[in-house]
Amino acid sequence: MAIYSVLEQRGRSGTIGADWKREYTRRFLVITTDKMDDVTVVRTAVDPSGYPFIPTLGSIYTNASLSPSTLRRDFGSYVVSIECTETDPQVVQTNGYDAPPNTGSYWEVTVKYGPYDPQAFDSQNPLDSTEKPKVSWGLSRFTKPFDQDTDGNAVLNSAGDYFDPPIELDDSRLVLRITRNEESYDPDLTNQYKDATNSDEFWDFPPDQVKLMDRSAELQSSGDCPINDGEYWAVSYDFEIRPEGWTKQILDQGCKVLDDSGKLVNATDNDGQPVNSPILLDGNGKKLPEGADPVFLKKKGYKQLPFAVFGLTKRGP
Fold first, then answer.
1. The pLDDT value given to residue 159
2. Which helix (H) or strand (E) holds 40?
3. How far is residue 185's CA from residue 124's CA, in Å, rounded to a whole number?
4. In degrees rounded to 5, what are phi and psi of residue 311?
5. Phi/psi at 308 (nearest 5 deg)?
6. What is the 3-state secondary structure (H, E, C) of 61-124?
7. How, if at all, do strands 173-182 and 197-198 pair?
8. For 26-42, how does the pLDDT look when each residue is reduced to its tens digit (9 = 90+)?
9. What SS3 class is residue 26?
């Protein structure tokens, strides 16, 4: 697979409009040594001598003269398209081109120039560091035991006992999804951080308010990716946010208490009989005095880790 020759053909053209925007067209004949050579080879073809060659997308217009005195450029017009069309070898040979018959492929290449378009010429490299990640917000619905009201009071029945089974409430949580392209995906990092909460500030949220819900990846491929044979990963991060934090508040209750010696014994009712259901405790393993406010124990159920490792810096408002 190789380029046999690159020849610029006659038929150049150019236009200028009332707005002074310039457009040009150049035509080439590319001959390869292999019939299986395709467009991906032809559109970047360079003659074995080093000249001429097919201009690259986004390059400025030039008449390609090798003499400085006749060289012309137009810095206001750039390559906007490269069209490659395979042609009949007999036609090529009839037109007088010296080419090895029936061994390669023959291509007519049309290069068009036009005004600068930032969107057309921005880097298409999917790993471009200036490419902003995709960000979306939403809500995810869960449920939680209704054992504490909005004022922080225990939810008890009229006899001062807890409900069994406990009452459930909706617990909708704010979900932040961030998706970006990355060179690689480390499943060990996902395993390490699964269900972890932030130990540092993350996207303006204080520590222990954000939990990693999911970190998934999908293998992608692009001819514009300069590494890993064009393969990269589209990685999605899903975070759950709870402004009240992820430290659990659990109603202190049980069927056993600590006696004066610190020994764990069965709890008893006012008649001295063992209780059949949990009673409220005072936070120190003792029976909660009547009329006292129920005690909630704070327990950390999730490990806290620095989320700076993800490199997901917030941009904009």
1. 67
2. helix 39-42
3. 21
4. 65, 30
5. -60, -20
6. EECCCCCCCCCCEEEEEEEEEEEEEECCHHHHHHCCCCCCCCCCCEEEEEEEEECCCHHHHCCC
7. unpaired
8. 999 998 888 888 898 99
9. strand
